[in-house]
Each structure stands twice: as C-alpha cells, then as structure tokens.
C-alpha cells in the first residue's frame, strides 16, 4: 500500500525525514501504456505555493515538503526506493481530428499515494513530446493551481494541485518566461483517449485489462465494459451540469481531456463566464467556437461516443448488438444531464423545498437565462442576489418571489467569489514578476467561495470595462 511512515534520522533537525512509498499499479497492470522515464533535473527549485491541507490528506508532512529533500521529491528528482515513474500513452480527438499517439509529452506519473495519482506537469521531455521542450511556465502552472482549487472549493469534481515549484530555468515561449512544475493529484489519469489508444493497438486483451483497471479504481459497481461505459456517461453528465451551473468554460474538451473518473482535468485555456452568453469562448485556439460554453454538453456526448467506439469489441461479440448497447447507454446522457441541471437550478434559486414541478421550474429557468443573455448580466452575481438585478427583471423576480425561495440556502450554493478572469491575470502577472501576494490573496478568497468576508469586495466584482475582450492561451 502507498503511504507514509515517520523515520528519525541521525542528525538533529526540526523536520524528521519521512519514508514515502509510491505505488505503481498503472505501470504494473498496463505496461503497454507506460514508458519508464525520469524527470529532468531541477538545479534550483523554489516553492511558489504548497497545498498544506492536501498534503496532509495524502499523508505527507508539509514541513518536510518545504525542505530541500521535499522539493527534490516534488520535482521527481529524488524519489523513494521502488518508485516507477512513467509517461502514460493515450490517443485522442483534438478539435475533432484524431491523433493516434499523444501521451504525456511533458508530464510524468510518479506513482500512487493514498490511492491517488501523484503527477508532474512541466517535468521535461518524454518520448511523447512531439517536438516540444517538455517544460512549462510559471503562469500556466499557477493558473491550473488556482482554478483547480477553486473548482474543488465549489464542490465540482476535479484533479487537485499539491504544489507549484519554480525551476530556476527560463523557457522560450513568445518571450522568455520563468519555468515551473505543477504537482497534480488525481483519482487517476485515465482518459477517453486511454481507451482509444488501447483499441488502436488491436489488442482486445489490453483493452480488457484497461477496463478492469478502470472499474476497480473508479466504478467497482460497474462490473463489465458496458457497466463501466454507463458509469462514465453518468459521471460526465453530472460533471458537465456542474460546469454549466457555475459558468465554467473548459476551453479544450478534447477526448484526451475527459476523464474516466468524472473529474475535471487539464486546465489550459479555461475561464469563468462573466456576462451570460451561451456563445462565450475565451480560448485563442478555438476560432470556430467548438468548445463554447453552450456547446459543452453536446461535445461531452460526442466524446462519449468516441469512448463507445473504443469499447465496442468488449460490449458484445455481435458488432450490431455492441452498437445497439452502446447507443442505448449513450442516450442516457441527455436525461442524466437534464436531471442534474434542473436539480442544480432548483438549489441555485432556493427552491429545493418548493412544490414547483419540473415543468414549471424549467420554464422559470429558461425565461431567466433569456433575460440574463439579453441584458448581459453577470452570471455569478445574479444568483448570489437576484433582488439586486435591474428593473428589466421585475416580472421574473415577482414570479420567483411568489414561490417563497430560501435565500439563505441560496448563499450556500451560489458563490460570491470565483476566479474572475481579470483577477487571475493580475495574480499571474505579479507572480511571474516575483510577487506572490496577489496570488495568495486570490486563493484566500476563492477557496472559501460561499463565505462573504469584509475586505474582499473586489474579488466579487465583474471585470471593469477597460479589461476588454478576454482571451486565454493553452499554456498548460
């Protein structure tokens, strides 16, 4: 079992050296999808941010992680005996086009601890690098830290961020930028693309072992390939509903960025919507708006169809029956998504205890979304305090008020603080220049998103007009 034991060393020290054990289940069970590899040396590691609470969850001592030995561990430069770090293989559809060989080009799975993956991003070139330098910049790594921890605080399933470490090395992007490594924690890094890779090998035995691995780790009630598929369809339907209810836009919903566990993963050109508009796109590389806010449910279903294609040989010996079973399971997405969305809006509007039926609630919600779009109303702020909306919402507010909403309950599900795009950019720019103060102030706000506190008013406000059109870049 992966875990941690305390060992007393022979010298006097304020921090005793632990013995950390990293499991290597993925590498053992699926060697065809794992390439043994080592992280690039980091000569001058400097800790930028450490998630103390997550470290404790994993059985790691935050004080030790701050030492030289701890930083060597976090950068993959000094791993415990028996560790088997690997780069994982996967395929994927990127913006609709199939790539048979993607994989961890600049990432490394160090192993499993406490049943979860410990994973590096920006740790150097691997055989999957495809011409890239294998490195990452401080800004994008801190962006993933900020947004993933905000998502966790909002109750949305997500990978977590344990630390960001500056490497002391400058990397070449548009300009020179300081390099960094993100230490990520996940239930696993199994993706739709993992199954696409296994299917493309033509080895049904490998595909079967991958299914068994995924079932055991994430969906033990599933039993077989069809059960696993239905479980993933349900998990993703509920995940995407939570994204939509929070105004989150992933930005790059390729099949290699959709997990089997149902966690959000790979925060590249992601952002949160301010003014409500289903056509909102932030990613600079999404020129056609494929991954716009309003398209996310349909794209998720498209990705899940690709997962079904990968699983077909295991669903039934008869190809036609396999397709029929997969189609039936995929059709469950729409109902699961609609149910999760309606349940979420019932809570967001304080109507959990109301007798309003689903049809009436659907009408109320659709009318509200039309108003929000027409008047470019800030999505997050509206639900926190609907009564503060303008006169144009008057008729709708009266309808809503007649249902006797629980406004106190609303405050427990509607955040006051999210990673506002202008504040994220401000924090990342300052951190890149060496000032971590804005980053820590932002983290303080967004990791307790439902608790309004004095002195944090600017973290609740939409971007000022001079912030202009916002574009994100896939730097992670």
TrEMBL record:
E.C. designation(s): 2.7.7.-, 2.7.7.108
Principal EC category: transferase
GO MF, one example: ATP binding
Lineage: superkingdom: Bacteria
Keyword Transferase: yes
InterPro entries in the cross-refs: SelO
Record: active site: 256
Cofactor or coenzyme needed: Mg(2+); Mn(2+)
Protein residues bound to Mg(2+): 257, 266
Any Pfam family the entry gives: SelO
HAMAP family assigned to the protein according to its UniProt record, in alphabetical order: SelO
Protein function: Nucleotidyltransferase involved in the post-translational modification of proteins. It can catalyze the addition of adenosine monophosphate (AMP) or uridine monophosphate (UMP) to a protein, resulting in modifications known as AMPylation and UMPylation.
Protein name, entry field: Protein nucleotidyltransferase YdiU
Provenance organism: Actinoplanes philippinensis
């Amino acid at each position: 079992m992966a875990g941690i034991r305390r060992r007393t060393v022979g010298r006097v020290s304020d921090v005793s050296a632990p013995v950390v054990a990293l499991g290597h289940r993925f590498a053992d069970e699926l060697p065809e999808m794992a390439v043994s590899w080592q992280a690039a040396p980091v000569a001058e590691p400097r800790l930028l941010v450490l998630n103390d609470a997550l470290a404790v969850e994993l059985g790691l001592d935050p004080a030790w992680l701050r030492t030289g030995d701890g930083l060597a561990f976090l950068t993959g430069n000094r791993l415990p005996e028996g560790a088997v770090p690997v780069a994982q293989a996967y395929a994927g559809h990127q913006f609709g086009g199939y790539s048979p060989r993607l994989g961890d080009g600049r990432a490394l799975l160090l192993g499993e601890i406490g049943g979860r993956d410990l994973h590096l991003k920006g740790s150097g070139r691997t055989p999957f690098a495809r011409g890239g330098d294998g490195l990452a910049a401080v800004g994008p790594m801190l962006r993933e830290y900020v947004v993933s921890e905000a998502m966790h605080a909002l109750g949305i399933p997500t990978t977590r961020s344990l630390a960001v470490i500056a490497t002391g090395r400058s990397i070449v992007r548009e300009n020179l930028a300081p390099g960094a490594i993100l230490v990520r924690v996940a239930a696993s890094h199994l993706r739709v693309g993992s199954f696409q890779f296994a299917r493309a090998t033509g080895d049904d035995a490998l595909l079967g072992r991958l299914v068994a691995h995924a079932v055991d780790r994430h969906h033990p009630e599933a039993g077989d390939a069809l059960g696993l598929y239905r479980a993933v369809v349900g998990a993703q339907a509920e995940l995407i509903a939570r994204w939509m209810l929070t105004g989150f836009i992933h930005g790059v919903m390729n099949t290699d960025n959709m997990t089997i566990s149902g966690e959000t993963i790979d925060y590249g050109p992601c952002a949160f919507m301010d003014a409500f508009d289903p056509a909102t796109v932030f990613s600079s590389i999404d020129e056609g708006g494929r991954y716009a806010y309003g398209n996310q449910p349909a794209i998720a279903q498209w990705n899940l169809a690709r997962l079904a294609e990968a699983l077909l040989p295991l669903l039934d010996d008869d190809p036609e029956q396999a397709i029929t079973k997969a189609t039936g399971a995929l059709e469950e997405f729409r109902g699961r998504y609609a149910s999760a969305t309606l349940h979420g809006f019932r809570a967001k509007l304080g109507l959990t205890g109301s007798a309003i039926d689903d049809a009436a609630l659907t009408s109320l919600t659709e009318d509200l979304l039309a108003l929000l779009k027409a008047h470019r109303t800030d999505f997050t702020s509206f639900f926190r305090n609907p009564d503060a909306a303008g006169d144009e919402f008057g008729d709708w507010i009266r309808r809503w008020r007649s249902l006797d909403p629980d406004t106190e309950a609303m405050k427990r599900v509607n955040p006051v603080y999210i990673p506002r795009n202008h504040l994220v950019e401000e924090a990342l720019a300052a951190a890149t220049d060496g000032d971590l103060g804005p980053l820590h102030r932002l983290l303080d706000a967004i990791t307790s998103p439902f608790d309004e506190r004095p002195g944090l008013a600017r973290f609740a406000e939409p971007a000022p007009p001079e912030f202009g059109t916002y574009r994100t870049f896939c730097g992670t």
